Amino acid sequence: MQISVIGLGLMGQALAGAFLTAGHETTVWNRTASKAEPLVAQGAKAAGSVAEAVAASELVVLCVTDYAAARELLDPLELTGRAVVNLTSGTAEQARSTAEWAASRGAAYLDGAIMAIPQAIATDEAVVLYSGPGEVFDRHQAALSALGGQSLHLGEDHGLASLYDVALLGVMWSVLNGFLHGAAMLTAAGVEASAFASLAGPTIGTVAGWLPGYAEQIDKKDFTATDATIATHLAAMDHLVEESEVLGVDPGLPGSVREIARRAVAAGREGESYAALIDQFRTPSGARS
Known about the structure:
Belongs to the HIBADH-related family. This protein has about 290 residues and is an alpha/beta fold. It has helices spanning about 10-20, 35-40, 50-55, 65-75, 90-105, 135-145, 160-190, 195-220, 230-245, 250-265, 280; strands at about 1-5, 25-30, 45, 60, 85, 110-115, 125-130, 150-155.
């Protein structure tokens, strides 16, 4: 299949390389033309302009700085008959507005999010999320599968890929920040971070195993505590904050989590499951009494 890749940062280079390895006729473009040279050596064609890249292929894949840059690059061009797959990071609203813009230019449009580092592209580790018309995804799924082990279509709403992306990043940062805070406490006590990591890793795996049960409670709106109540968790959070202060470690992270639990207790929900804290997240600060 003929595929054009616009944007050759580290990720864009990895995407184009994956298409080449899979045997697709690949055209590439980047503002800094020299970034195309390694791909040309692998068999790619370097386009002299964005217009040339778009004209070369039915499937156009973008991986640029942001949505504004994507639209700036494509705005002057005729896109009728093209399928545009935008793998640029952004927000759900940006994805939806870009989809409307693409439709006005005659393009079929999929929004996407790459849940992998460049080195993982084209391996089983890579997960690429797509949202938009199912028939557009189905038509190009075989080509897009070159990018990794899982190509998942999330639904017709163009904003879903971006929304999943930021939600999953939130999970990632929460895990990493929890580890870093714990490592700060233990290294303050003379323990090497590697020793902590050997226990933290399996603990993260255990907690991940709880997620399907918590998700079921959220979907069913049944927060019966089967392991520990919010009150029990809150008592342990007090210990974590106190230990942080004693060791001279910033207690802000556990303190913010404790504040969420305290709000739930104040609302009379101390006997419920930890999953019930979702209702605290669902209530914006300005809407709290």
